[in-house]
Design goal:
Elements lengths: L2 H37 L2 H38 L5 H4 L1 H40 L10 H33 L1
Helix pairs in contact: 1-2, 1-5, 2-4, 4-5
The structure holds protoporphyrin IX containing FE (HEM).
Length: 173
């Protein structure tokens, strides 16, 4: 096997592994964690959120950076030196659209989900310092932040499904 094909196999593998890490984290959030969270007591839900979400978003952002770097390297290697391949072939258009949607997904995570999670963790820590009350629900700020996450995470779930379709289409037609 020539060195350039070994490098290509390696970059492809890195792209796969990073893609499954990002997708795995998003899909697990939507399909497994969100339904389970709804069944937990508010104080348990609060401590799970504080521990789980910051790590989850850090992993997603780091894996998305690796994913994009490997994706661009793969696109450059397979697309050749003529950039018009990304505008006038089905393969190129699928990769280009997938790449643009990946950026939307990435900035959604970096600029909306990450700061929201930071504020949520802070708000939950403050709420935890007050005596628990059975009659009042979670503070309004917590509800607002949770609602933001409940919009951003499913949006990224949908984007990931579309990107996956486009990548599969590019690779297999
Ligand atoms: C900057 C963003 C991205 C770029 C430039 C990119 C580029 C590419 C390229 C060039 C290929 C190879 C296609 C071929 O073999 O002909 C590929 C395959 C693939 N990409 Fe991406 N990609 C990006 C983001 C993503 C994301 C976000 C995901 C996951 C949601 C993803 C999942 C995959 C998968 C699973 C394959 C393999 C498809 C298969 O062989 O069936 N990619 N990508």
């Amino acid at each position: 096997m020539a060195l350039d094909s070994i490098v290509l196999v390696l970059v492809r593998w890195i792209h796969f592994a990073a893609a499954f890490t990002v997708i795995g984290a998003i899909f697990t959030s939507v399909i497994v964690l969100t339904p389970i969270m709804k069944t937990l007591q508010p104080d348990v839900r609060g401590s799970v959120t504080v521990k789980l979400l910051p790590r989850m978003i850090r992993v997603q952002i780091a894996a998305a950076l690796v994913l994009m770097a490997a994706g661009v390297a793969l696109a450059a290697a397979l697309g050749g030196s003529d950039y018009r391949v990304f505008l006038n072939t089905k393969w190129g258009l699928a990769i280009l659209t997938g790449g643009i949607l990946t950026l939307v997904m990435f900035f959604n995570a970096l600029l909306i989900a990450r700061p929201t999670i930071k504020r949520l963790v802070k708000a939950l820590s403050h709420a935890g310092e007050k005596p628990p009350s059975a009659t009042t629900g979670p503070p309004a700020e917590v509800v607002k932040l949770q609602n933001t996450l409940n919009r951003v995470i499913p949006t990224n779930f949908l984007l990931a499904l579309i990107i996956l379709f486009l990548m599969g289409f590019a690779a297999h037609g």
